[in-house]
Amino acid sequence: MDNLFLTVPSAKAVFDQNQVILQRAFEEKVAQLASNNYNRTTAITTIPVVFHIVLPNPANVTDAAVTDQLNILNRDFSGLNPDSTNATAFYSVRGHSEIRFCLAQRTPANIPATGIVRVASSTTSSVGLGDPIKYTSSGGSDAWDGDKYLNIWVGIPANPNILGYAWFPGTPPPIQERGAFCNFRSFSSIQPTGSSLFSAYDNGRTLTHELGHYFNLQHIWAAAGCGNDDGVSDTPPQDVESFGCPSGLQTDACSPSAPGKMYQNYMDYTDDDCMTMFTILQGVRMQTALSDPTRIGLTTSIGCLPVVLAPNDASILTIVSPVPNFVTCDPTVPLTITLRNAGTNSLTSVVVTVKRNGTTIQTFSPVGLNLASNTTQNFTLNPVPLVLGANSIEVCTSLPNGVADTDPTNDCKTNNVIQGAGTPLPLVEGFEGVTFPPIGWQRINPDGGLTWQRNTIGLMHGGIADAFVNHFNYGTNGATDDLISPPYSIGVADSLWVSFWGAYKGFPGFPFEEFQVAVSTNCGGSFTTVYNVRDDTVFAVAPVTTTANWTTSSLDQWIRQSVDLSSVIPSGNVQVRFRTINRFGNNFFLDDINLDKKIFLNNDAGVTAINSPASRICVSSAVPVVVIKNYGKINLTSVKINYQLDGTGAV
Ligand code: ARG
Ligand code: ZN
Ligand code: CA
Asked: Is the CB of 201 under 6 A from ligand 1?
């Protein structure tokens, strides 16, 4: 977070403001509880958790290990851990929280679930914004709705010494990155198959600690020095972190006499077998964090409730083909869907209806269907004929087993397809819409690593968002990442160009990234490169390198480039591809793309400059010299030039 705040002071302002609100709520709660002698006044809140296990072999972290970790969290958060006996000196302030955890029993789409997602991948976790382990597009696992679920990623950190990390409430990251990461070697007390747990961090306390942060607890020592800097008055002041597994009275300059330092606190850095307690006020502070806008949705989530299946419930789970925002030059597109029996009865008949832009174009009733409860089956239907431009393809189920569907909310899915003859110019794209890539755009990520993402951190060229590639964390030399616009029809034009704004910095001692623009005139069948630079030569404003995970902070860091595409006009269709090539430098940002044309007039002359007189002269007269330009299509063979002084009439 300090890294982020260095580059984006506005993120710090938002965080500080939210912390003030939380602190006030905390103090009110403390006063209320004090007058009530710390009796419990709030009900237990059970929070649905989804564990994303991202490992080359994710089965190496077993279901038993996940259950064990969940039990450890519930034991520690409820204060029922039997090892608290190492903290007798602090029994009077020993507390617990009213927070408990369950394995999510349903997905955000209300499909029965175990709360465990496994992804076979070698993608690692990088601490901070844009962590690739949190995105399916970079080989990780996409979060479930972060308002309703606590997402915990378990995997391998890029820095193998990291045990875990989490974000505080009331601040970035984007909702997709909320939650905690835990090293698989400090996860639960059960050894992962084929690997070992860290010997000192082998009792699941890494997540007890990280979730303390997730619920707004600071480290017990917080900032250096002896102030009440962790914001809870019942933890003794402590100068720096404690390591290892001390016992008995431990003192430092801040707590020089009994009871000494509270090295037994979960928010210290001691070994798992040594940290055994939250304080009463830490419990209150965690409870208060639930009122933050980024946490409050957890309190009303139904993620812990198992799905109750109705008798007859058919559903389109996904449209497998066409993929969302598919672009094609073909007159039709193949259609494959996944049908799901969401009911308790076997599904023996169903009607599948396909609409394109609201008009029914086929219905389909699978012959000999016999789909067991809570299972799926794929079907390929007739290809869908397309119209030019946007095609919204909606597929719905009806009449499961010949009766009305018990739950019509899951009947339909829609995907959009763009047919290649293209939409009319201009293309104006500033990445302001939350959908990324924007509708009709494609993102090509051949190595499955980091790639183009929408970004809302920093100072955009315009609006609140831009697109960027996180080269700061990107470890694959030469990896390309493409962002490709949908096709646009050119029509009548005399000139065609694409302009865009870029911002970049490199990393000291490492090669710089490259940026290329290419165009296709055959719906992406082939591309011709029309612009090719090494980023530091064009986009980096001095200093051209930084060791920070760089984001933009001022408008003068944005550089506009414009590429003449007039030579492709005869082809009628144009699609633009933006490519970055990773070379271990730093982040590249792209904003406010404009693809447009101009139609010249036949007779169009203009003055582009007055070369004489100069703007300030010491003589009483001068011979006017002007530059005129023929903007018209026809050769300029005569033109009249008028001049006048102080509006005294044309000469
Ligand atoms: N270093 C990490 C953090 O500050 C985790 C520390 C976990 N400690 C432990 N005994 N498991 O968030
Ligand atoms: Zn910590
Ligand atoms: Ca249904």
From this structure: yes
